[in-house]
Amino acid sequence: MSKCPDARDCLRDLVVPAMEKVVDKVDFTLSFIGSVDNNDTIRCMHGPTECLGDIISLCAVDLYPDDPVIYLGFTTCLIMSYSKIPRRDLVESCALEHGIEFQDLNQCVSEEGRGLDLLRTSVERSEAAGVKRSCTVRVAGRVWCVRDGGEWKDCKAGSDPSDLVESVESLYKHDLVSH
Predict the structure, then answer these.
(1) C-alpha pair distances (Å), 6 with each of 28, 101, 152, 165
(2) What is the DSSP letter of 45?
């Protein structure tokens, strides 16, 4: 996903603007698509550098699990210059911009097994959910909207950030009433 123009557009045009309004009402999970073969090798659609970019983003999630503003901002910063992923200057710049210690991020990526385990878990979570396209936005366990091939698809409630905010707030209010 980290080198995917659809993911870039999805984060920039839908997810980030919506999350700015509902971050306190959602349990946001950033998951990546790929495949794990019989030899336990992870493959990403846009190649090994995309896998590394995904690992870098997942390490930010691992370091700041309770702060999607930090890790989503960092991931968006990376993906806005996706052709440069995983260049050190880009990662350092995005880390600095979002208050992430580069050394901590680098340690997570470099530590044997840690980054790959994060990516494997993420890919398996996407596979278990039946997600095959980057970017698939899911709300309450269901596909809400998909960005694929430069187009919005399967967006029954709309593809504008306000539509996503409305859907999340409606579910949040319903959960408050039913509990």
Answers:
(1) 19, 28, 9, 20
(2) T
Are the C-beta atoms of residues 168 and 18 closer than 8 Å to each other?
A: yes
DSSP 8-state assignment for residue 12: I
Residue 84: φ, ψ to 5°: -95, -5
DSSP state of 64: S
pTM: 0.91
Contact predicate 135/11, CB 8 Å:
yes
Task: For 82-145, give the DSSP string.
Answer: GGGTT-HHHHHHHHHHTT--HHHHHHHHHSTTHHHHHHHHHHHHHHHTT--SSSEEEETTEEEE
Over residues 86-115, the pLDDT tens digits come to 999 999 999 999 999 999 999 999 998 899
Q: Which amino acid, residue 44?
A: C
pLDDT digits (tens, 9 = 90+) for 13-67: 999 999 999 999 998 898 999 998 888 899 999 999 999 999 999 999 999 999 9
